[in-house]
Design goal:
With 201 residues, the chain is an alpha/beta fold. It has helices at 2-13, 85-102, 115-122, 132-145, 160-171, 189-195, and strands spanning 28-30, 43-52, 57-65, 71-79, 107-112, 148-154, 178-181. Strands 1-6-5-2-3-4-7 form a 7-stranded mixed sheet, sandwiched between helices. Helix 2 runs parallel beside helix 4 and helix 3 (115-122) packs across helix 4. It is globular and about 40 Å long. The two termini are 20 Å apart.
Length: 201
């Protein structure tokens, strides 16, 4: 009950942004409403960002899973100045893939509920948006560090843990601070098992 109360309190301050609904080439749009683990020898990175439009602050979060549906790592961070919701989402992706590379992972799937970000990451066009530099960094990093990578757009209901981590980064952590986790923190434990298929819980 306390976790649900905290989430409800945080969401009062979150500013939602419109996400494009039309998938583009090379982007997986999955209609499932339950999370599924990746295939063998592949790691799944769920990412999310949180943006306060009024204060121009935000947060990011990611969680990395293996093919058994086990959490391997998670992280959350605070952003003192956030230009847009897309920037917070992109930063979450960048932090997630950096950590995956540090762990020696070669095959990854990035899951996000932001179709705008997925479209940008898969595009081969020059991105001239305000976050274009960060988008290019992510594209280049994925090409150079991984044998294979896929960007998937999932229903937000499949991304609740990353969403809660991003909210925690924005609302609880201090300015520009991060919180790395090798085990699930108490405030996402309930959501962690909610994301997993029932057979894995």
């Amino acid at each position: 009950m306390l976790l649900k109360f905290k989430i409800q309190s945080y969401t009062i301050y979150l500013s939602e942004f419109e996400k494009l609904s039309t998938p583009v080439q090379q982007i997986t749009k999955d209609g499932q409403v339950s999370w599924t683990p990746p295939s063998e020898d592949t790691y799944k990175i769920n990412i999310d960002g949180s943006f306060f439009a009024g204060a121009r602050t935000g947060g990011w979060g990611f969680i990395i899973w293996d093919s058994n549906g086990e959490m391997l790592a998670a992280d959350a961070g605070n952003i003192v100045y956030a230009a847009s919701a897309l920037q917070t989402e992109a930063l979450a992706a960048y932090k997630g893939i950096q950590h995956a590379a540090q762990l020696g992972m070669m095959n990854i799937v990035i899951e996000t509920d932001a179709t705008v970000l997925a479209s940008a990451l898969k595009s081969v066009q020059i991105d001239r948006s305000p976050v274009g530099c960060l988008i290019r960094q992510i594209r280049d990093f994925m090409r150079s560090e991984f044998a294979s990578y896929i960007v998937s757009v999932y229903n937000r209901k499949c991304n609740l843990v990353a969403h809660c981590l991003a909210t925690h980064g924005a609302c609880v952590l201090g300015s520009d601070s991060t919180m790395f986790m090798s085990q699930a923190p108490g405030f996402v434990t309930e959501l962690l098992y909610g994301d997993l298929p029932k057979s894995s819980a």
